[in-house]
Design a protein that fits this description.
This protein is mainly α. It is 70% helix and 0% strand. Strands 1-2 form a two-stranded antiparallel ribbon. The longest helix has 23 residues, at 319-341. Residues 377-381, 384-388 and 505-530 have low confidence and may be disordered.
Length: 1004
Amino acid sequence: MPTAPQTTDELYEELQANQRRPYGRTRTVTAEELVDAAERFEETLPLVRALLELQEAYTYGSEPRKSPVAFARLLTLFDEQPDVFDENLRHLVFWRFKWVASALRALPEIPRTSLRQWLTEMRERYEKAGLGLQPYYGQAYRLAAHVGEDTDLAFELWAARTRTPLSDCEACEISERALYHLASGDDERALRTWEPVLAGKESCQEEPARSIAHALLPLLRAGHTDRARELHLAGYRGCRRNPSMSGEVGRHLEFCALTGNEARGLELLAENRNLFDEVDSPLELLDFLNGVEVLLRRVEQLGHGELPAAGFPGRTWTVTGLRAEVHGRADDLAARFDARNGTTAHTDRRGARLGRAPLLEALELTLRTRRLDEVAVVPGVPVAAPAARAVAAFPESLPELVARARALDEQGHPDARACWTELRTRVTAPDYTHPDDPAVGPLARLRADLLADEASRRGERDDFTEAAALYEEAAGLYDDAGTPAHAALARAHAVLATAEIPPQTSARAASETPSGLPADGAADTGDTDGTDGIPAEVAALTAAHAAMVRLHAETSGLAPYQEVRLLRLRATALGLRLQASRSDGHVAAVLHEVGLLHDFATRHDIPGQIAGALVLRASTFAISGDLPAAAAETDALLDRLEAHGPAWHLPRALGLRARLRLGAQDAEAAHADLGEALRLAADWPADAVDTARLHGDLAEACMHLGRPDEALRHLTRSAELNLRRGDRFDAYCAYSNAATLSLDLGRVEDCIALLDSLLAEPDVAAGEPDDRLVAQLRLTRARALRAGEDLKAATTEFLALAAESAGWDDDPGSHAMIAAETAVLLAEADEFDRAREAADQALAAHARDPRHEALSNCLRELARLQARQQGSDGLAGALAFLADAGRVAEEAHSAGYEAHGRPLDSALAYEYGRVHAYADAYEDALAALEKALALIGEPGPDNGRAGEWAECVRFAAAMEGVYLERPEPALARLDAAVSRLTALGHTEETEPLTSLAARLRDEE
C-alpha cells in the first residue's frame, strides 16, 4: 500500500479493494498491512474485519501455518468483546473453526492429539452457543479420512445428521460424500453422488473444480471418455496456478499421464511452475507432487527422461532429474504425515497412484495434439514428422550417400531432402573426415550443397532474407570448389529470394491476419520504389528476372538439369510479378517464359520440369482470370502425371485443380480432389507435397459444404504440419482460425485450451511473432472466456487489448472494434462510466477508420443494457449512446454504406423504443416503434424483412395493449399484421403475434 488508511472508512475501502484481488502473495501482503493499520484505531471492529480478511488470504493462499494464528487473535477479541460481533461476524467466527481444523491437518508437525483437541474445542464452543453439531462431525470425518482409521463410523456420524447454517455448502458436502465412496472402491456410486456438482447444479468458490479433478479417473474407468475430456478442460482452468488447489492441478497432470497426453502434461506443468515455490501447505504439496511424479515417471518410461521440465526454482531440470527430486520430497512428506497419524495411509495412497497403469493409449484432449519429441523444440526449427512411408536405408559409405543425394536432387525427387539431412548430421559430427574421392569433390562443394538445401528450406518458410544469404554463401563455396555452373544457379536463387523479401517486414503479417481481427486498416503493401510509381515488389521481381537472364547468358557449361532450373526460376520470377501486379500486360511475358521452360524440358526429357511448366501455365491463366483455360491446363497436367509421372507432383496438381473448383463454387468436386490428394500425399514427405496446404484447402471446402467439424480437424492438422516444418506464422494463423471455428461451434473449452497452449509458446511469450497475430489469438481467447461466462478474466483481457490497440496508428479500425467489445463487457458488469470511456475510444478510432455497423451495434447494445439495468435512472446515459449511434448511422448513409445485417436506421428506431420501455416511458416507446415500422416498410413475399417487421408490430402492440392499456388498437394492429403475413406466406412470423392477441383478449 502506498499510504496507510487514515480513517476507518478508508480502511474499509481498502479491505473491499483487496477482496477483489485474486488470492496470492499480493493480496496476503496487503491484508497483513491492513491489519497493522487497523491496530492503530481505537475501535475494535476495524481490526476484526481486517483479521477476517487476513485469515481468508492465508487460507486460500495456501499458508496453513499462519491461518490459525490470525484466527487465534480473532477468537481472543470475540471472547473479550463479544458485543463488537454482530450476527454476521459471529457466524463467520464459528464458520472458521473449520478452516483452522483443515489448516492443522495440513501440517505434519502438529501432533494428532492437538488435532483432536481442536475438534474438542470446536464442539464445546458450538454446544455452548446452542449450535448444531453437524459441522463438527464433518470435521471429525475429514480427520478420520485423512488418518485412514475409523472412516466408516465417522462418515455415518456425519452424513446421517441434518445440515445446519454452519454446514459446508451443498457442493462441498457432495464432494466429500463422493470421495468417501471413491475411497471405498465404488466408482459408480461416487459418480452418481457427484452428478449435481459435475453438472454445475451445485457450486461454490472451489467447486466444481475440486470435484472434477478427483472424478476424472473414475469417469475413464466407467467408459465416459468424452465427459472426462470435457471436464478436464473446464476443470483445469478453474484450478491452474492456484496454490490452494495445487493438489487438483496434480490430478490433472496425472490424468494427462494416464491418457497418452504426456506432452500436454509437461505443458501444464510448465504453466504451474509457480506452485513449486508458492504452496506452503505440506498436504497440498504432497498431493501436487504425487501427480507430478506420476507424469514424470510416465515420460521417463517412454524414453524421454532427457526432456526439460519445469520444477523447483533455482536450477534447470530434466524429467529424470526432477522425478528423482520429487520422489524424495514426496516420500518424506508422506512419511511425516504417517508418523504424525500413526498409520501408513499416505504412503499407501501415494504408492497406489504411482502404480497405476495408463487407462487409455491415446485420448485426444485438445485441438492441439503434441508428441513428446515436440516439447523441447526451438521455435522456427523444423521437427521431423512421422515417416509416411519407408525410405531406403542410407548407405554406410559417404561417397555413395553423396552420389544418391545429388542424383535425387537433380531429379527434384522428394527423398533428396532426407539424404541431405543425413549428410548434414555426418559432416557436422566432431570426428568427420572428408574423403579424398573425386566423385565427392572437395569439402567446399559438399558444404555448398548443404547450404543450398538449407536455403531452399528457408525459402519454403518465407524466410527470404536468410535464404538469400545462404544461397550467396553457397555460391561462393561453389566458386571455391571450381563448379561455376552450380555457383550461377545458387546466385540465381539468391536473386529471386532477395526480390521476394517484403518491402516492409510487417506487410505479409498485415495482409495475412486471420479472420476475426479487422484488416481494413492493415499496412499497405503497395509501397513504390520511387520510379514511375511502380510498386516495389513488382520492380524488384522485374529486376530479378533481368538479372537471371543476364546470368543465364553469361554462364557456360550448364548441364541440362541446371539450365532447366534457371529457366524455371526466370518463369517463376515473372509469375510472382503477375501475382503481385495483377496486370494483364504481364501475362504474355510469363507464358513466353513458361513456353521456353516447357520446350527445353521436353527436348531433354525432364519430367519434373515439364510438370512444373504446366503448373506455371495453369496458375498464370488462373491469376489472369481465365478459369476455363486454367482448368483445361490442369486437367492436361493430371493426365500427363498419371501417364508419365513424376508421381510426387500429383498431390500438388490435384490441390491446384481443387482450388480452381472452389473458385468455381464446386465445393463437392474440390473436396473429392483434395481427399485424393491427401491420400497420394501420404506416400511422400509432407514438405515435398505441401500437405499442410492441402489440409487447409480441404478445411475451406468442408466449410463450403457445411461440415465444420471436419473442417476443424483439417485446420488443426494443417497447423500441426506447418509447426513441424518451422513455419510458425502459417501455423498460428491456422490455429487461430481453428480457435475461432471451435468457438463458433460452441466448443468453448476447446477454444480456450488451444489458445492457452499457443500463448504459452516461448516465442509468443518473448514477443517474437507478429503482434497483430498474437492480438488476434488473445482476442479470440477473450471472446471464448466471455462465452464461457468467465467475465472477470474476459474483461481483464479485453481491457489489456484495448489499451494496446490504442497505439495501432496504422490500424485504428481494429482498435475501434476491440474498444467497442470492451465497452459492452463493462456494461454487462454494470460499470457504465468505464463503458462510456471505452465507447468514446471506439468512436475516436472509428472517426479515423470507420466501422459503421459494428459501432452502431455496440452503441445500441450499451443503451439497452444501461436502460434495462438502471431503468429511468439510466435513461439519460442510454439516450446518449443512442445519439452516438444515430450519428454513426448518418455517417454510414452519407458514405453509401449498406449494413450486412439490419439497416442501421430501423434498428436504431427500434432500440429507442426498447430503451424508453425499460424507463417506463411507454408513449415515447410507442412513437419510436411507429418510426421503426415506417423505416422498415411493409413486408413482401421475398424481401427478408418480415421477421423484423413482425417483431416491431409485436412490441408496439405490447406497448399499446399491455402497458398503455389500450387493447382495441393493439388488437387491430395485431390482426392486420397476422392477415398480412399469412397472405405473404410468412406463417412462422405470425406465432408471437397471435399469442399476444390471445393474451389481450383473455384480459379483456
